[in-house]
Amino acid sequence: MNLHDPLTVVKGVGPAVAAKFKLLNLKTIGELIDYYPRRYDDYSALTPVIELTQPGPVTIQAQITSIKGRYVRRGMHITEAIASDETGSTRLTWFNQPYREMAMKRGQDYYISGSFELNYQRFAIQNPTTELVSDFPVNTARIVPIYRETKGMNSRQIRLVLKELVPEIEALVETLPETMVRTHNLMSRAEAIMGMHFPDDSEQLDVAKRRLGFEEVFQLSLASLMNKLELQQEKAPPVEFHEALAKDFVSHLPFELTGAQRRVVWQIYLDMQKSQPMNRLVEGDVGAGKTVVAAMAAVMVLHSGHQVALMAPTELLAQQHAETLHKLLEPLGYQDLVGLLVGSMTPKQKEVARAQIKSGQTKFMVGTNALIQDSVDMHGLELIIIDEQHRFGVDQRKELLSKAGHMPHVLSLTATPIPRSLALTLYGELDVSILDMKPGGRKPIKTSIESPNSRKLLYEDIDKELSDGRQMFVVCPLISESEALPASSAEKMYEQLRKRDFKHRRVGLMHGKLKGAEKNAVMQQFVRGELDILVSTTVIEVGVDVPNATVMVIENAERFGLAQIHQLRGRVGRSSYQGYCYLMLGDSGAPSKRLRALESSNDGFRLAELDLELRGPGAIYGQAQHGQLDLRVAKLTDIKLISEARQAAHEFIDSGEKLVNYSQLREQVTRLRAVTNLN
To answer: What average pLDDT score do residues 269-274 get?
Structure first.
C-alpha cells in the first residue's frame, strides 16, 4: 500500500465504508493518516475493581465471569455482564448491543473502558469498550483519540482502520532536514504521527504535538520569508521625501500628532525612498490615528504628480475616508485630487469617476473593490493603501497591485490589534508598525456589564446623556427575529425603542441587508445629528467616526468575541466627551471571563491575546482566514515554539539548502506561498 491508494485497499474498508469516509473528505490512505484527533479521552490508568467508588470514566483489566442479554420494554435490548479481577467484581451494561453476549469470551483478560455510573440504583460501567489484553488495544487502556465524526462513522471505527495502517505510519519518510530534527530535538515524523493516533502516554503525545506544531510554523515561516526575499528583488519607483511639505501638513492639523504617529510616518518615509517596494502593515488600536498616517504617506506621492489608491472593505468606510482625506489635504490645496469610486454610485457617477482617474485629474483614488474592475484605468500608481486588508481576498489585493503595471509601495492598515504570535506567523513577510498611543484629550471608555433586569435604570441614565446632546449606538447580533437563535434583533429593538423606551427620541435603523445608498443615507443622518439613536448590526464595527456619539449598548454581548466588542466600543469616545459602553447580557446569569476582561481593560492588544487564547485565530479574523493559517496542531499562544520554528526557517534559508531536496516540504511551502495574506 502507498499513501495515494484509495481507502478501499485497507482491510475492512469496502465501498460503503469508503463512502462514509468521503463525507469526512478522506479518500486516500495518506489523507486518513494525516487526519488528526480533535481531542483525547484518557483511559490509560487501570483501576482495581475494589477502588471503583466514584462516578466517571474508568478502565479496568478483568475477566468476564458471566454475561446474559434480554429484551425489555419497546424492543430495547440490554446485555449485562459481571467482570472480575483479583480485588472484586463489577457490573457491565450495554444497551442495544445484542452481539456482546456471543462476542465476549469467558476466562480471557480484557481491557474494559467506559463511564462508571449509577443506573436504576446500581453502579455499572455503561456501554464500555472492550479489547483483549493480548491484542494491540486502540480503544481501551490508553489515551484514546476522538476524531471529528459523521453519520455512520465514529471514532472507534476510524481507530480500527488506522490500526490496519500502523505499518504505513511507521514507514513514513522524514519531511524535515535531518540536521533540523536533531538540532531542535524533534521526533521523527513517523513517530509523531504514531504518537498522535496511538499515544502511549501524555508525555509522548506532548512531544508528538511539539514536532508537528514546529513543522507547521516552520512551513508557514519559510513561505513568508521566501515571499519577502522575492519581493525584495522587485523594483519600485523611489518617492522623494520633502521635509517642508511634511511640516506644512502637520502645522495645519487641528491636533498634535502622537509620538507613535511620528515614529510610524518616519518609518514609512524611509521605506518609500528606497527602490525596493515598501510592504508595511500599520496596526493600531481603535482611534489611534491610522488615516492621518496614511494621508502623510500619500502627500509625498501626490507632490510628485503620481497616483495613490486606497481600498476599503465597505462603502461606508470608503466614503468616510474620502471625506476625511479631503479635509486633511485641503490646506495643501490637494483636496480636489481625491476621488471616490464605490459600487452603489449611479452608472453616470461611475463613468465620471473612472474618466477622472484615467485622465489623472483624480490622483488619490478612494473606493471599495470597485477600484479593481477592468474598466478602471490607473496610471502612475505608486502607492496602494489597503484598509483592514485581512477582509480582502488574496486575488483582490493582487488585482489592485496589477493596476500599477509595476510593483508599487504597499501600506496595509488594520484596526484589529494583532497578537504578537499571530503577527509572526500570519504577517511574517511584512514590516509591522504599531500605533500604540491615542490622540490627546480622549478619555478611556467606561465599560460595564449589565443584566436585563437593570435595563429600565440604564435607559434613564442614557436618556440624561442624550438630553445633553450626545448620541447612542445600539448593536444587535441579528437583523431579524429568529426561532433558532434566542437573541435580540435590530428590527425588533428599533421598533421597541422608537415606540416605547425612547419614543421621544429620533431613532434610526441600519443593517447589512439595506442597499448601500440606504445605509449611507441613515449613517449621514446620524453623523449630522438628525438621529439620537442608531440601532444597527455589526456593520458599524470598523471605521465609522461620529465624535458626538458617546454611548454604545451591545445587546447579547456574550455572543460577540472580545476583539469584535473592542472594535464596536471604539465607535464611541472619539472626542473629548466621556464614552460609555454597556454590555447587555442575554439573561441574568454570571458574565463570562471574556466580558469581565472587557470591563476591566481598554488595551486592545491585551484583549486580542486573550481572545486568541480562549477562542483561536478565527475569533479575530474569521474562519476563512483561520483556514488559510492551517495550523492544526501548533498553538498560536506558544510563543516559544513559534520563535524557535521561525528561527529554523531563517537558518534553512541562510544555509543555502534547496527545497527541491524535500518534495513534501516543497509542496506545502508552495501552497502556503500561494494562499499567503501578503503580497
So the answer is: 96
